[in-house]
Amino acid sequence: DLKLQFLYLIGDPSSLTMHGIKRALLSRAGRRMNSGLSFDLSEDQLMIQDMARKFTAEHIIPRAAELDRSGEYPHEIFEKAWEAGLANPHIPEKFGGSELSNVTSVVLTEELAYGCTGVATALEANGLASAPLLVAGTDEQNSKYLGRLTEAPLKAAYCVTEPGAGSDVQGLKTKAVRKGDEWVVNGSKMWITNGGVADWYFLLAKSEEGFVGFVVDADTPGITVGRKEINMGQKCSDTRGITFDDVVIPNANLLGAPGHGFKIAMKAFDKTRPPVAMGAVGLARRAYEEARNYARERKTFGKAIGEHQAVSFMLADMLMGIEAGRLLTYQAAIAADQGKRNSHLASMAKCFCGDHANKCAQDAVQIFGGNGFNSEYPVEKLMRDAKIYQIYEGTSQIQRMIISRWALEQQ
After folding, report:
1. Which whole number is the average pLDDT over 307-323?
2. How far apart are the two ends of the chain, measured CA to CA in Å?
3. CA quadruple 8, 10, 11, 16: dihedral sign
4. Catalytic choice (110, 111, 290, 393)
5. What is the value of pTM for the model shown?
């Protein structure tokens, strides 16, 4: 029982409320790691990992196949995760959040993604939307918008990608025109995660003064939410186009100074790419464990297929990449916790883990053979879900551009 675990953590039955749980996470769990090189999680991090693992087993895995078929947004799971303190781990204490370290947050993400990466993406989208506020928001802005996410199980979305501008953010067309103490925005965004369920958006636009970033209430007049897109995988994640037609935004909602919007949007990825990478690790681990268990049971030529070298070597390659990817993601998260620039590490983690998740899912289908191609077995969903890890929050090719540029700058 999750509440019993928190009772063990804090020893105070009166604190076993929603906000008590969040305070427990805050006071005991996953602070900055200052003890030097270590491959061990702290006792409190292990407790959160176990709690997330049990939450996934109880609430996510039993519903994953159904959500994949229906494409329904996992509102009920989101609300239960929020009540348990498993949503919004990134929000600072002074705005009502748990303020878990980046390392502890990615530990949490791996367990949620193991159950279903569509659900994990629905939960993690708040982190992406919030990251620009953590980079450049004022206390007043953060208290208002981040505070909403801790006061109720609300969602937020990151509106940057456009129909003609994905990886090429410089090519976006959405325009913002300053008129006195307000801005008027016109343009269209596409592939916006949480687009149809968000309470507010981070919005990136172009102005005469350069890129500008805003936080925008979703019910602002002039905003139109498009249809839910039917994607190949992660089907329960809500992905939509958003249109802004003469949307008036007060200057108080501008993040940073005019001209700084692009940098703010890109710095956000330094915070969010490690969790995305660890989501891919969670999927890869699920694919590996499903394939390993099947390889123990399925027999050909008088023995379990796992005893054939062709299969056993595939399992070995899966496991090597999972362990390597997890450690690389921890390194990127630790650098962020230490206040170091981690752009290259975040890109390395996101690229490596995304590619390896796809390899693991494909090999799992291969190990399952004909059964792997059938929706009655779990691995075909994993293969469909994995592909987006090579696309969203920067394609694998964009990550390699970032890494190679960093490499050539080194002396």
Report:
1. 98
2. 53
3. negative
4. 393
5. 0.90
